[in-house]
Amino acid sequence: MHPTAADRLPAASKRVPLGFALAWARGLRPVTESKPALIGAGLVLCWVLAAVLAPAIAPYPPNANDMAALAQPTPSSTHWLGTDHLGRDILSRILWGARTVLTVAPLAVLGAALLGSLLGLTAGYYRGWIDLAIGRACDILLSFPVIILYMIILAHFGSSALNIIGVLTLTKAPIIARIVRGLTIELREREYVAAAKLRGESPLYVMLVEILPNARGPLIVDMCLRTGYNVVIIGALGFLGIGLPPPDPDWGGMVKDTYGMMSVWPHMALFPCAAISSLVIGFNLLAVGLREIGLRD
Amino acid sequence: MALTVARFVLKHVAFLLLTLLVVSFLVFTLNELSPGDVARKVLGAYATQEQVELLTRELGLNRPVLVRYVEFLGRLAVGDLGMSTRFKLPVKDIIWQRLANTAFLAALAFACIVPLSMLLGIVAGMYESSPLDRAILLFATVVASVPEFALGVFLASIFVVALGWLPGTATLVAGGGWSIASQLVLPVAVIVLFDAGYVVSMIRASMIEVMQRPYIRTATLKGMTFRRVVVRHALRNAMINPITVILLQINYLISGVVVVETVFAYPGFGRMILEAALFKDIALVEVGALVAVGVAVLTQILGDLAYVLLDPRIRP
After folding, report:
1. In degrees to the nearest 10, what's the CA dihedral of A68, A69, A71, A73?
2. Which residue of A has its CA nearest to B285?
3. Residue A26 — pLDDT band, cuts 50, 70, 90?
4. At what angle do helices B282-310 and A146-157 cross, to 10 degrees?
5. Cα(A114)–Cα(A122) distance, rounded to whole angstroms?
6. CB-CB: which of A262, A280, A284 is closest to B156?
C-alpha cells in the first residue's frame, strides 16, 4: 500500500530547517564548480567591496572640485582615472557611484521578489478567477515597454531613489510572479504540501513555508539576472537625465554629462561605462553559471 | 483550422483593446496626479497668474478628470489626436514622421539581428560544450550585459574618436561630409549587438533541448549525416520557441531605441516621448505611449500566432 500523506508527518515537519541549512551549504559549493559563476561572483564581489569601502578608499570626496585639474583632466598620478568636466575625481565618483547602484538595484529586486512571489503563490495556489485576474494584470504591465513607463512616471513624480525602487519593483514583479506561479502549480501537487494541508496549516503557511523554499533555485537565478537588468536600467535612466538626482555620483549620469566631450576627453565617459558594464557582466555570468549548475544537479 | 485562427485573433484583439484602454487611463490619470500646471509649463515662469488661469480654462483643464478622459477617447476614435504643447503642432503631424524614422532604424537592426543570432545560436547549440559553443555563449552574455549607452560610447570612442571612420551623430541630415548611410552604422550596430546577445542564448538553449530528443537519436542511428539531421529534423523544432522570443524582442527594441536615439541624436519616436514626458506634453505622451503599447501587444499576438501555426501540438 502506498504510504499516505499522514505517514510522512514527522519528515515533513523536519524538512524546513534542514532545507535551509542544506540550501546554505549547497549555495556556496557550486559557485566554485562553474567558471562563469566564479568569474561573475568575483566581479560582483569586487564591486560590493568597492561600494562598502568607498568612504575609506576613495582618494577624494565625490563632489569635490579640483580647479587645478581642469586644465589637464586626463589620468595622472594625483587622479588615477583623471577628473571630469568640473574637476571632480573620476575614481572617487565611480566608487561612490557603486554604493548608490548597489543599494538601489538589489532593493528593487528584493521588492519585486516579495511582491512577485506573493502574487505568483496566490495565483498558482488558488487558481480559478484569482489566477486569471493576476495573470491579466501582469500581462498588461509586461506589455508596456519599460523605459516608456519609467519616463512617464519619473518625469511626472520627479526622480528619487525611492521612486526608482518603486517603479522597478512594480515592473519586475510580474516576471517573478509568472515564474513562481509556474513552480507553484507544479509543487502544490507534492505530498509534503498535502501533508501540511492535512495537518491543518493555513494556506499562507503552506505557501510560504512548504512551497516557496522549494522554488528558490530558479528564483535565485532570476534574481541575479534581474539585478543585472536593474543596474542597466538605472544607468539608462541616469543617462536619459531622469535618474538619481545630481550631484551625487551615478554612473549613467556621469556618462550623460561627459559623452558630448568624447572627441576631446574620451576618458570621462569611458571609465563609468566600463564600471557599469563590468558589474552587469558579473551579475549575468553569475546567473549563467548558476543555471548551468542547476541543470547539472 | 481557419475558425480556430479566427477565434484566436478575435480573443487577442479583445485583449489588445483592453490593454490599450487600461494604459490610456493610467497615463491620463498619472498626468493629472503629477504636480505642476500644464498651463504654467506652456507659458513659462514669467507669465502672470491671470494668463495661466485663462489658458487653463481655454484648454479645459479645470474640468473633472473622468469627463476629460471620456472626451479624449471620443476624440481619438474620430482620429483627432490633439495638439502638442511642446512642438505647438498637431500631434498627428509629428508622431508619424518620428515613428517612421524609428521603424526604419528598428527594421534595419531587426534585419541584422535575425540572421546573425540564428547562425550563432544554431552553431552553438549543435556543438554544445565545445570551445566554439563556450566562446559564442561568452560573447552573447557579454554583449547583452553592456548597457546600450555604454556600448554606444565604446563603439563611438573607437570608430569616431580614434579611427575617425564614422560620424558620432545620426541626425538623418546629410552634412559635414557624412552620408546618411554612414550615420546609421553605429546606432544599428549598438541595437544589434545588445539584442542579438539575448536572442543567441535563447536559440542556443532551444537547439540544445531539441538535439537531445529521441527523434534526433533515431535519425542519427538510421545513419543520416549529422548535417542532414540538423537541417531536416532539428531546425524547425528548435525555431518554435525563439520565434516568439524574437517577436517579443521588438518590445525591447522600443525601449533600447530610446537610449540609442539619445546617444546619437537620432530624430526618432523614443526621443520624442522623452522630450514630451519631460515637458509634460500630455497629448503627445498619451498618444506616444498608446502607439508604443499597441506595437508591443501586436507583436506579442503575432508571436503567439506564429507559435500556433508552427507547432501543431498546441492547436486547440
Report:
1. 180
2. A152
3. low
4. 160
5. 12
6. A262
Residue A83 pairs in a beta bridge with A89
Q: Does B294 lie at the interface with A, CB-CB under 8 angstroms?
A: no
CB contacts, 8 Å: B272 with chain A: none
C-alpha cell at A18: 534542514
* Grid coordinates of A98: 557603486
Closest in B30, B147, B157 to A262, CB measured: B157
Q: How far is residue A5's CA from residue A197's CA, in Å, rounded to a whole number?
A: 10
The residue among A147, A237, A255 with the most chain B CBs within 10 A of its CB, best to mutate, is: A147
Give the residue from B247, B295, B244 showing the smallest Cα distance to B269: B295
CB A88 within 8 A of CB A66: yes
- What is the mean predicted confidence (pLDDT) over B111-136? 87
Q: Which residues of A206-230 are buried (b: 16+ CB within 10 A; e: fewer)?
A: bbeebbbebbbbebbbbbbbbbbbb
Interchain CB contact of A163 with B (< 8 Å)? no
Q: In angstroms, what separates the C-alpha of A61 from chain B's closest C-alpha? A: 25
pTM summary value: 0.81
How large is the average pLDDT for residues B279-306? Answer: 79
Residue A17 pLDDT exceeds 60: no
B83, with CB counted inside 10 A (0-12, 13-18, 19+), is middle
| Contact check, Cβ <8 Å, A155/B280 | yes
Q: Which residues, at least 6 apart from B47, have a Cβ–Cβ distance to it below 8 Å?
A: B40
Each residue's pLDDT tens digit, A204-238: 888 888 888 888 878 888 888 889 989 998 898 88
